[in-house]
Amino acid sequence: MSFRIGQGVDIHRLVPGRKLVLGGVEVPWEKGLLGHSDADVVCHALSNALLGALGEGDIGQHFPDSDPRYRDASSLALLRVVMEKVKARGYRVCNADATILAQQPKLAAYKDAMRQNLAEVLEVEPSGMNIKATTGENLGFIGRAEGMRAEAVVLLETAHTETLD
Ligand code: MG
After folding, report:
1. Which range marks the domain in which residue 57 is found?
2. Looking at the 3D structure of the chain, how many domains does it have?
3. Section 67-76 average pLDDT
4. What CATH number is associated with residue 72?
């Protein structure tokens, strides 16, 4: 077995008049994340972690925000495209772990639905896709609910041995 690890971080600004989509789940709230796509920070952090593990750069390179095809795109669908790259390289996801840093709203009731969505896309058991949420302790842009941040790590595994150059 050969393993590769990847890490991803994403930040988006919160504004009124946008849907709040996290891990492919629409969370009812007065503000949503601003971005070219649906600005789902969790999917973006996970996509970056997968691309990182593959050594294939970041989602900005693969899905440029200057490209009208990605306007209001579902980031869960973009994550699916990234997973196709993972599989094309002969890898599978062992497990993934993500953290959402958000002051508001309370996310506890939505974490399970996010886990189910993401586990399905990453083709892991639900226990292989962990979601954590924490506030910003009222500090900084997260604490003032001006934006959200997500972080993710993934471990990929393959039966073949890949030569790193
Ligand atoms: Mg993003």
Report:
1. 2-158
2. 1
3. 86
4. 3.30.1330.50
